[in-house]
Amino acid sequence: MKISARNILKGKVKKITPGSVNSEVLIELPGGLEITSIITKKSVESLGLAVGKPAYAVIKSSEVMIAVD
Amino acid sequence: MKISARNILKGKVKKITPGSVNSEVLIELPGGLEITSIITKKSVESLGLAVGKPAYAVIKSSEVMIAVD
Amino acid sequence: MKISARNILKGKVKKITPGSVNSEVLIELPGGLEITSIITKKSVESLGLAVGKPAYAVIKSSEVMIAVD
Amino acid sequence: MKISARNILKGKVKKITPGSVNSEVLIELPGGLEITSIITKKSVESLGLAVGKPAYAVIKSSEVMIAVD
Amino acid sequence: MKISARNILKGKVKKITPGSVNSEVLIELPGGLEITSIITKKSVESLGLAVGKPAYAVIKSSEVMIAVD
Amino acid sequence: MKISARNILKGKVKKITPGSVNSEVLIELPGGLEITSIITKKSVESLGLAVGKPAYAVIKSSEVMIAVD
Predict the structure, then answer these.
(1) What is the DSSP track for D4-61?
(2) CB within 8 Å: C43 and A2
């Protein structure tokens, strides 16, 4: 499946913090960057996410803001 | 100002494509990564964005999805 | 690629309205339902979207609201 | 009240999974489709949602992505 | 229609800036506050929005970030 | 830091409802208005949010819908 989301960043799962409905997933990217994601607990299970496994952070471009110092 | 958005990635502006109401801004991150953002044309102006200038991509963690191969 | 977004609805492209940066894409679903999507013009091109072609509407569950009469 | 969100899909509540702050609501649409929504627990209460009751899934078009095989 | 979005702020339309697919709508709230919204041009038309008319800004709580100085 | 989000509303924290992964934060604005936000529990901690403290509600304009009676 190819998706319209313009930002698809490859990394690996660094940490999963499960909640009651949502879980927090930390993805480690190349260059020392990290991305935090909140997805449903069911998605964590259905994707088979686990620490150390490769995964992509996917972000629709309309959800990305820009900031300057 | 310190914001609750968990993802604040430092890079620099690589390209700006202006539209009528929204503009597309491409941010170059360390490690060869790139992030595309859609913000209003007025925000591009009020932040003084220009190619080559440092800028942050800011993303609320609830907007980040995860994918696997 | 398998994505965490819980809502992946199969249909076909009914109409594409191009703008300057964003385009509007209308997806026809089974049962007479329709879904309108705003994605970037570049995504319309890179996905090769065209009227009549099969496509999925993909929606993160945290973006879905509920209403009652 | 009439809202700008372009996607208003009529169905009925199939399942409610309550969390601590957010709850997951599954809406059954015509044609066998289903939509999963994450809304606050307080909204589930204030709307009086219950399994079997009619409800709409409401989605802003800028939140809908498109995918192809 | 009653919606799950927790933030429904009553005001009136102060300005509409039409684009090719999206339009920018400025809502004036009590207390001198203003809210900027980007919705589709078609929604501006179907809601019959016009400067001076009463309107609500509607925001899902998961889309609201918090910042401090 | 200056951000592209067009809606930055100054108020103070009225209530914090912690969940397992996300927390609900209620901001009181001038003119008697209130805004509800869902952010991660970690963000509540890292921002040092507490009842009575000044805070901003920050909303990207593409996340704001409009409604009429």
Answers:
(1) S-SEEEEEEEEEEEE-SSEEEEEEEPGGG-EEEEEEEHHHHHHHT--TT-EEEEEE-G
(2) no
What is the number of domains present in chain A?
1
| Contact across the interface for A66 and B57, Cβ inside 8 Å | yes
pLDDT band at F31 (very low <50, low <70, confident <90, very high): confident
Measure the CA–CA gap between F29 and F58, rounded to whole angstroms: 12
Domain presence at residue C36: yes
What is the chain A residue with the closest CA to C49? A4
The partner residue sitting opposite A43, judged by closest CB among C4, C40, C44, is: C4
> Is C27 among the domain residues?
yes
- The alpha carbon of residue A35 is apart from the nearest alpha carbon of chain C, in Å, by 15
CA B66 to chain centre: 19
In a domain, D29, yes or no: yes
Of A31, F7, D61, E31, which is closest to residue C26 (Cα–Cα)? D61
Is residue C31 pLDDT above 90, yes or no?
no
On whether the CB atoms of residues B47 and A66 are closer than 8 A, the answer is yes
pTM for the full model? 0.97
Query: pLDDT tens, D4-36?
Result: 999 999 999 999 999 999 999 999 998 889 999
**CB of F58 within 8 Å of any CB in chain B?**
yes
Question: Which residues form the domain of E33?
Answer: 7-59
For chain F positions 18-37, those within 8 Å of chain D (CB to CB) are 18-20, 22-24, 36
**Which CATH number goes with the domain that contains A46?**
2.40.50.100
Count CA within 13 A, CB hemisphere, residue A57.
Answer: 32
CB contact under 8 A, B1 and F2: yes
